[in-house]
Amino acid sequence: MSKLKIALGQMRIDDGRAPDNLQRIEAIIEEAGPAHDLIVLPETATSGFADRASVAAVAEPLTGPTVERLGALASRHSCVIAIGLPELSGDDLFNTAAVIGPGGLLMAYRKTHLWRDDLAIFRPGSEVTVADADAGGYRLGALICYDVEFPEPARLAAARGADVIALSNGNMDPYGEVHRRAVAVRAQENQLFLAVANRVGDGKGMSFAGGSMVAGPDGGTLLEMGTEEGIGSVEIDLNRVGLSRRDYCYLDERRFRVEGDAAVNPGA
User: Fold this and answer.
1) Does residue 10 surpass a pLDDT of 70?
2) 48 in helix, strand or coil?
3) Cβ-based neighbour number of residue 247 at 10 Å
4) Are 109 and 143 in contact (CB under 8 A)?
5) Taking the CB of residue 25, how many other CB atoms lie within 10 A of it?
6) Would you call 111 a catalytic residue per the annotation?
7) Domain with 189 in it: what CATH number?
8) Structural domains counted in the chain
9) Is position 263 within any domain?
């Protein structure tokens, strides 16, 4: 597959009201699924994150019914879904991005860089992972919101072979422009595609910034949404990743390694 059709589900999330949020999520997937290969949805799309009690009330293990329901939708539409949700693991809660394909869960990424409001709710993750996107012929990484403001998570995903990074976002005003710039830089410095789905509307005294977007390997904007709910759509050419690295490849020419890099740079 050289062409990849991406849908961004920019949606309003009602904190603590999982059934309502799941209804919106399923409507987005049903609408976008038949015509898209990859659907990206926001951070904690099923729950929001008003407080620990409301998140804990709806959090599930990754073997739970929500991932199972989303897996059935991915199978029905032969697509991959990247979605942020609260993960329950033992007594711990993680802010997780689940990547789900027709065969079920492909991978899960636990947010490594927690925003200050996350700290009272979630434990941080410690690993950046990348998955083969089923039969799509590309490798997909996943990050969450504040992660994009740091160079290292995206660099580790690129070093592990990601062609595309799905960013499940929950970014609020006045930081919309901060993320717009950061997304372009992360895509350009790693020479890959970065697809971002953000939340809109109000919650917990905040106004969420929208602006869901896709940036290409040169940092250029291929799609950018406004501040209303909706589905953004773009087709990308995965060959651009290799072409962008043909004359110079930052991954090959960098001299410094980041923490966690030993797995992809033995002897570093």
Assistant:
1) yes
2) coil
3) 6
4) yes
5) 26
6) yes
7) 3.60.110.10
8) 1
9) no
Mean pLDDT of the chain: 94
| DSSP per position, 1-43 | --EEEEEEEEEE--TT-HHHHHHHHHHHHHHHGGG-SEEE--T
- Residue in 26, 43, 228, 259 annotated catalytic: 43
Among candidate residues 68, 111, 152, 259, the one labeled active-site is: 111
The answer as to whether 256 is a domain residue is no
Q: Is 145 a catalytic residue?
A: yes
Q: In this structure, what are the phi and psi dihedrals at residue 111, rounded to the nearest 5 degrees? A: -50, 125
Query: In the predicted model, is pLDDT for residue 173 greater than 50?
Result: yes
d(CA 135, CA 78) in angstroms, rounded, equals: 10
Q: Tell me phi and psi for residue 30, to 5 degrees.
A: -65, -35
**Residue 88: which of 118, 121, 60, 53 has the closest Cα?**
60
Which of these ranges, 20-29, 65-74, 246-255, has the smallest mean pLDDT?
246-255
The pLDDT value recorded for residue 267 is 43
Query: If we measure between CA atoms, which residue out of 67, 55, 70 comes closest to residue 15?
Result: 55
Annotated catalytic residue: which of 79, 87, 145, 149? 145
- Give the range of the structural domain holding residue 57, as residue numbers without chain letter: 3-251
DSSP SS3 for 251: helix
Q: Using one digit for the tens of pLDDT, what is the confidence trace for 49-83?
A: 888 999 999 999 999 999 999 999 999 999 999 99
Among the listed residues 28, 24, 2, the one whose alpha carbon sits nearest the alpha carbon of residue 13:
24
| Domain-located, residue 234 | yes
Count of positions (residues) in the chain: 268
Query: pLDDT tens digit string along 211-240?
Result: 999 999 999 999 999 999 999 999 999 999
Reading the block at residue 191, the tokens are: 């020479």
Q: Answer yes or no: is 266 within a domain.
A: no
Residue 125 φ then ψ, to 5°:
-80, 180
> Would strands 221-224 and 199-203 be described as parallel, antiparallel, or unpaired?
unpaired
